[in-house]
Amino acid sequence: MIIIDYFKGKGDGDAFASYQELGRLVDMVKNQICGDMNIAGIGAAQATSTGKVADSAKIGRNASAIAVIQDKTPEEVMTDGPTCGNKKLRVVLNRNGMQMAPDEYIDLQFNGNHISYEQAEKQHNPNAPY
């Protein structure tokens, strides 16, 4: 597996050239590295306050799947229960399979002392397909 901590353009010159560069970089990692070597790959990109990919729409257009990790609201924590964790993971784009409905998410437990995310002990919806 290859993990790329953060996709970001050089920021030199005009924004369009930088966005084109990001698109080519994501394509190269996806096709020439992960695809040709038959390995999984994960890359990170900055998101806007609304959860969209911030640096480039090209990343979103070229990614196979995009997932976001969000804080659960206090109401979600109370409704789901303490064993369902304190974060939620939503797959907002998936070119390889089913799409998640807007109210679906995977329960995660975030440990800030170790900066680790794990699937929560229990899922709030035990009948979900994930």
Summed up, what is this model?
The protein is α+β, with helices and mostly antiparallel strands and 130 residues long.
How would you describe this structure to a colleague?
- The protein has three helices and six strands; from the N terminus they run E-H-E-H-E-H-E-E-E.
- A four-stranded antiparallel sheet has the order 3-4-5-6, with no helix packed on it. Strands 1-2 form a two-stranded parallel ribbon.
- It has two domains: 1-63, no CATH class; 65-130, no CATH class.
- A hairpin with a 4-residue loop joins strand 5 (106-111) and strand 6 (116-119).
- The longest helix is centred in the N-terminal third of the chain and has 23 residues, at 15-37.
- It has helices spanning 15-37, 57-62, 74-80; strands at 2-4, 41-43, 65-71, 87-94, 106-111, 116-119.
- The chain is of the alpha+beta class and 130 residues long.
Terminus-to-terminus distance: 21 Å
Q: Shape from CA axes?
A: elongated
DSSP strand (E) fraction? 15-25%
Any idea how many domains?
A: 2
Structural class: alpha+beta
**What is the number of beta strands?**
6
Given as residue ranges, the uncertain stretches (5+ residues, pLDDT < 50) are: none
Sheet with the most strands: spatial strand order = 3-4-5-6
Secondary structure elements and their pairing?
Layout: E1 2-4, H1 15-37, E2 41-43, H2 57-62, E3 65-71, H3 74-80, E4 87-94, E5 106-111, E6 116-119
